[in-house]
Amino acid sequence: MEIWEQDSGRALDSLEHLRSIEDAVGQPFPADYLHVLETHNAAYFERQEFPVITPDGLENKSVAVLLSADGDEMDAESVLSQWHTLQDEHGLEPHVVPFGMDGGGNLVCFDFSADGEPAVVYWQHDEMWLPIRVADSFTSFLHQLS
């Protein structure tokens, strides 16, 4: 089963703006994530559901789109735009960097707060929860999608 819908995604011209995020968090993005962006930038996920243990118990959440690596801060589906929104409007720390979004504006993010490979966390915009860890790495997150 494919993770990505076949005819989705935009060509990726440059990763310059992602490099500026790396500079801000002090760590590089995972190589497997950058590789996915090279061929599936702004793609839609075919397999979307993943389990999350929320304060309310086990729930299935979803991720619909891989956020664009384009530098357009006006594009609501870009990494850069959502990263600034998390900080400016929701007070999250810069080490939480979104890479995916569901249809309701909830985000799947990297958590660069520890050294090494960033964990994957889920952030729900209409709850007071802090981001919830869902996977140890981007690759393990992709493997749990159903």
Description:
It comes from Deinococcus soli. Pfam families: SUKH_6. It is a single chain. 25% of the residues lie in helices and 23% in strands. It is α+β, with helices and mostly antiparallel strands. It has one domain: SMI1/KNR4-like (3-Layer(aba) Sandwich), CATH 3.40.1580. It has a 5-stranded antiparallel sheet with strand order 3-4-5-6-7. It has a two-stranded antiparallel sheet with strand order 1-2. The protein is globular. The protein starts with 15 loop residues before the first helix and ends with a helix. The mean pLDDT is 86.
Mean pLDDT: 86
Distance between the termini: 9 Å
Task: Describe the sheet with the most strands.
Answer: 5 strands, antiparallel
**How many strand elements?**
7
- CATH class equals Alpha Beta
Which topology does CATH recognise? Answer: SMI1/KNR4-like
Structural domain tally: 1
Low-confidence stretches: none
Tally of DSSP helical segments:
4
The helix content is 25-40%
Q: Return the CATH architecture.
A: 3-Layer(aba) Sandwich
- What proportion strand? 15-25%
Protein name: Knr4/Smi1-like domain-containing protein
InterPro entries: Knr4/Smi1-like_sf
Organism: Deinococcus soli
Keywords:
146 residues; alpha+beta; SMI1/KNR4-like; 5-stranded antiparallel sheet; two-stranded antiparallel sheet; Knr4/Smi1-like domain-containing protein; Knr4/Smi1-like_sf
